[in-house]
Design brief:
The chain is of the alpha+beta class. It contains 16 helices and 35 strands. Among the domains are: 115 residues, Nucleotidyltransferase, domain 5 (2-Layer Sandwich), CATH 3.30.420.40; 135 residues; 113 residues, Dna Ligase, domain 1; 67 residues, no CATH class. Helix content is 31%, strand content 28%. It is globular and about 80 Å long. The two termini are 50 Å apart.
Length: 686
Amino acid sequence: MTYRIGIDVGGTFTDFVLLDRVSGSRVHHKEASTPSEPSLAVDSGVQVLLEKAGVVPAEVELIVHGTTISLNALLQRKGAKVALVTSTGSRDILELARIRMSHSFDFFAQPEQPLVPRERVLELAARVGADGEVVKRPSASDYAAVREQLLAMQVDAVVVSVVNGYLQPQLEEDIALALSLGLGGVPIVASTSIWAESSEYERTMIAVMNGYITPIMHAYYDRLETLFAARGLTAPLSITASNGGTIDLPTARARPIDTILSGPAAGVVAAAEAAERNGVDGIVTFDMGGTSADIAAIEQGTPDLTTSTLIGEIPLILPVVNVSAIGAGGGSIIRVDDQGFIKVGPHSAGAVPGPACYQRGGTAPTMTDCYLLCGFFDPATFLGGRLPLDPELSRQAMLPVAEALGYMDREQPEVHAAAAALQLAGSMMATEVRKLLARRGSDINAFTLLPYGGAGSVHAGLLADAAGLGQVLIPQTPATFCALGAVVADLRRDFVRSCSVLIDAEGKAPEGLGQQLAELDAQAHDWASTLGERAQRWHYRVAADMRYQGQAFDLSVELKDHQGPLAPALRALFESRHHALYGFSEPAAAVEIKRLVVSAVGELSRIAAAQAGQHEQIAAGVRRIFLAGRWFDAPYLVRDGMPYETDILGPAIIEQSDTTVVVPVGWTVRRQASGDLKMTRQRSAQ
C-alpha cells in the first residue's frame, strides 16, 4: 500500500493525481465536473485514474480530497436551515454586523443578507461578564421556551453564541446540551467549540457558517464513502483544510468550516514544495482554472497565512492560506458594457454549458475561446484529445464583441477582439500581483511566478509580462496541481484563544500567558493522539496576532518548534515584521497579544521525487499564433520531448496532456533537471 490519491473538485473540472510514495511516479487525470452532483465526477474520475495507473484499490493507502462545495453553498445561499440562540438583547447581531456598508457611496447598496434571518434568532437569558464571570444562567423555563420555538421552526442545525462566551466556554456547552434534550437529534453547536474568538460577530458568524454547511457536507461525505466502498477503496479519507494542511474525516465532519477554502490552499502547498525543489525563495502563485484565478505569496518556503479574509461580505477569522481572488478563469465570459468598454468576467460559463468552443450549447465568448482564436490551442488535442474544440463556434461567439468594439474593418476582427480581452485580463491580474507584493513590502524583482490550474500556464507569460516579473516556473503537471498539493500536505489543525496580554519593553509578560499556551498545547496534543500513527512526527507551532498597545490592527507572527521563553521571542518577531512592513518599530512601547494559536502539524511519510523522463523527440512542428498584435509562426514542442538545460526562444508553444504553455515574445524557456520549466524574460525585453 504505497499509493495516494489526491482529488480537487473545481467548478469546471475535477482533478485527480495518483502518486506512488516510494518511486515518486504520478498519474494525473481531469474529469468534467458535475455541479448538480459532484460525487459523480469524483467516482468516474477515480475509476479512470486507477485504470490508467494499473493500480487496484487495495494498493491505495490514503485518499485526500479538496472541494469548493461548502464555499459555493455559502456564496449561493444554498445551505441548511439554521437557528441561532444568543444572549438577551443581542438578537440583531447578524444584521448589525460591523455597521459598515460594502459600498459607502452607493445610495442603492443593500446590506449583506444574513445567513440566519431574524425570525430564527432566539434570545436566552445567558451572559458572561467582561471579567469572565457568569452574569446570568438560563432557568428550566427559559430552556423550555426556547426548545419549543426551535421545534416549531423545524431547523436543520442550531448555534449557541453567548456574549463574552469565549471567557467561559463551558456555559455555551451547557446550554447546547440542555437544549438538545427533546429536539430529536438536531445538531446543536457552541460557538466557542468552533472558534473561541473574542469578537462577538465574527465568532458567531464562524459558528453559523459551520452549521449552515454541515448537513450538506455530511451528505456529501456519506456519498463519497459509499462510492469508494463500492469500488473497494478502504483507505482512510482525509480532507484538505484552509490552513494548507489536511484533517481526518471525523474532524471535517465536526468542523466543515475548516475546509471552506481547501482547494486554493492545497495548490499553494504544492507550490511551496516546487519552489524548494528548484531553489527559489520568492514565489507568487497563480492558480487559474475554468471559473476563477487566485494568487498568493510564498517566501522562504512558507505560505503566508492570514486570519482576516472574506467569504463574499462575511468575515472569516480562521487561519487560512492568504489567497486573493484576481478574477478571470478560462470560462470567464467576455462582453462589452454600455459605455463600449470590454469586460472579462465575473460571470463564467462553468462546466455546463462551458465555452462556446466546447460544443455543449454555450454561445457566450470566454477566455478559452480567446486562446483558441489566437492559436494557443490545437483544437484536436485539447485535454489530450478527449475534448475536441470548434474554432468556428468561438469565432461566431466573439464577432459581436468585435463589432461592439469597432473592429469589423480589420482583418479577422474576432482575433483582435480576443487579443484585447487577453490583454485586459493580463493587466487586471498584473495590478493585483503588484498590490499583493506592495502590501507585503516585497520587491517584485525577487519573485518568480508559479502558474497552475488548467489555464495558468497558458496565461502566465502574458501576466508576467504585464506585471514586470522576470521569471516563471512551471511545474510538471500544473493542471492538476491542487490535487497534488492535497497529497503532499501534512496533517494540521489550529487551536485558538483570544486574550489581552501585554509584553513590556524587556520582553516580560504575565504568568497567565504560559497557562493559556499550556491549555492550547494540551488540546493540540489530544487531537494528534486520536490519529494514531498516521503521522511520522508531530510539530507544535505557536502563532500570535499582536499589535503595539493602542494600535487598531494586528500582525501575525509564528514560531516553529520554539524552545525557551515565549514572550521575548514573540516580541522580537513582531518588531521585525512591523519594521519590514512599515519601516519602523517602537522598542520602548508595550506590545499586546490579542490572539494565541497553537498548530498541531503531523508530518506524513515523505514522497520520493518524481523522475523526469528522457525523450529524444524535440520539435513537433510550427503553430501560427497571434501575440503582441501580429501573427507568428511559433515552434510547437511536446514537453516530454524537450531537451534539458537548453534555452528555447519565444514565441513558442509547449504542449502536454493536461495544459499548454505559451512562451511570449522576448522570453526563453528551459527544461530544468527537475523536469519543471523555467521561463526567463530577456534583458532586451525588460
